[in-house]
Amino acid sequence: xxxxxxxxxxxxxxxxxxxxxxxxxxxxxxxxxxxxxxxxxxxxxxxxxxxxxxxxxxxxxxxxxxxxxxxxxxxxxxxxxxxxxxxxxxxxxxxxxxxxxxxxxxxxxxxxxxxxxxxxxxxxxxxxxxxxxxxxxxxxxxxxxxxxxxxxxxxxxxxxxxxxxxxxxxxxxxxxxxxxxxxxxxxxxxxxxxxxxxxxxxxxxxxxxxxxxxxxxxxxxxxxxxxxxxxxxxxxxxxxxxxxxxxxxxxxxxxxxxxxxxxxxxxxxxxxxxxxxxxxxxxxxxxxxxxxxxxxxxxxxxxxxxxxxxxxxxxxxxxxxxxxxxxxxxxxxxxxxxxxxxxxx
Length: 345
Description:
The protein has 345 residues and is an all-alpha fold. It has 13 helices and no strands. It is elongated.
C-alpha cells in the first residue's frame, strides 16, 4: 500500500519518497504545529529544520522506500529460487503472494498505529502529559483546526509507511517459511554446496538490513529529540523498540528453520551413501580381493570433502556476522540511550 501511494505521484520512486517525507508530511506539518503554539512564523520555520525533525522526515521517507527495496530483493532472488521449485515461476508467485494482500496490510497499519500511540502515551495512563492535545479552553481557530487535521493525516500516512516496513518483512519471511515445506528440486551437492538455496539466505539478509536500517533511523530520531523523556516514556517507547528488534531477529532465523532441517537431512543422506564405499576402501589389505584403484580413491576423497563442506544453513558465516553486527549495534544504541537518560549522562 505504501508503494502504491508513492507510485500515484508519477515521480521517480526515491524522489517521491523524499517529497512525501520532507515535503508533504514533514516541513509544512511542523511549521503549522509550531505556529499554533507561538503565532510566530520565524521560530516555527527554524523548528522545522532542527536536526531531530530532519531525521524524522528522513525516517518517513525511508519507511516509504524500504518496502520497495525488500520487494525488489525478493524479485531478484525469485529468478534463482524459481529454478528449485516444481512449478517454477508460478510456484514462486504463489508462495510469496501474501506480500500484496490488502486486508492484512490494513490490519497491520491499525495495529501499528495503536501500539505506537500507546507506547508514546504511557505517561498519560499515570496522570502525566499526553502527546494528543485537544484545545477545549478557547474559541474556534481556523489555523489550529487546519493544523490538527494536517497532523492527523500526517500521522495516518506516516504509520502506513512504518507499518509497511514491518508487514513487508513479516510477509516475505512467512513466504520463506512456506518455501521450506515445498517439494523443492534441490541441486546436487557436487554442483552447489548450498543445494541451490543460497539466494534464500541472501534474501533474508537483505530483508533484515532494510528492517534494522528502519529501526536504526527510529533510534536516531529518539536520540536527537530535544524533549527529555520520563521513566515512563523510556519504558513505553523502549519496550516498543525492543519488541521490534526481537521480532526482526526471530523473523530472520525462524522462517529458515525448515530449510535448515532439510539441508541437514540431505547431508546425512549423502554421508550414509558414502559410508559403505569408504568402509570398503579402508578395509585391511588382507581382506581386500583386489588392490584399490587410485582413481576411485581420489574420487571418494573428493566426495568426502564435498559432503563434509555441505552447508546446513542457506547462508555462510559472513552473513551471520553482518546480521549480528547490525542487530547488536541497534540494540547497543538503544541501551546506551536509555542508560544515559536514566543517569542524566
